[in-house]
Amino acid sequence: MALQLTLNNVGKSYNFDWIFRGLSLELSSGQSLAVLGGNGSGKSTFLKMVAGSSYASEGTLDYAFNGKKIDKDDVYSLVSLCAPYQSLFDDFTLAETIAFQAKFKPFVNGLGSKDIIELIELPKAANKALKYYSSGMKQRAKLAMAILADTPLLLLDEPGSNLDKKGVEWFKNLLLPQMQNRLVMVCSNRHDEESGFCQAVLEIEQYKKKG
Length: 211
Known about the structure:
The protein has helices spanning about 45-50, 95-100, 115-120, 135-145, 165-175, 190-195, and strands spanning about 5-15, 15-30, 30-35, 60-65, 70, 80, 155, 185-190, 200-205. By secondary structure, the protein is α/β, with parallel strands linked by helices.
């Protein structure tokens, strides 16, 4: 799987204020990008735009997969995402949640629910409704389903949210073997802890301009 993503002079504004502007990048499978900035800097806005759930106010984002141009409305099929604003179905169990996702986006290497539950390290809670999970347990579930989805574009927004030190190490140990041949972006305001392994860095605040 080969993905190419090109951003040409991209900007995003709300209520006549520019969140960022003049952003140009060329990225492809096998690369990783840390998107850095403080709270409110526009990191999540940038990630939503790359995911295809928000449109640029100016400039263009172009996607190609295996040499074929991808329409913006079809980008979702290439993406797996984990972000703080994502919600899970609280009445589902972990096993049901994993099985539900697999219907839409299969997991890498033919992994099944049992395999993923073991990787999340929550076998005793597999049949417990998610509404009884701690915030850290839910974050592990969201991260595992995003990282282990068989997609060429992986987007992670503040992946260390609600994780203790041990949980952050678990996250990195899960992610690093799954980065090969994918384009990975990690939004963070804790670079050393959450995204220090990325090959390149994008400082969103450098692109903040007023119209």
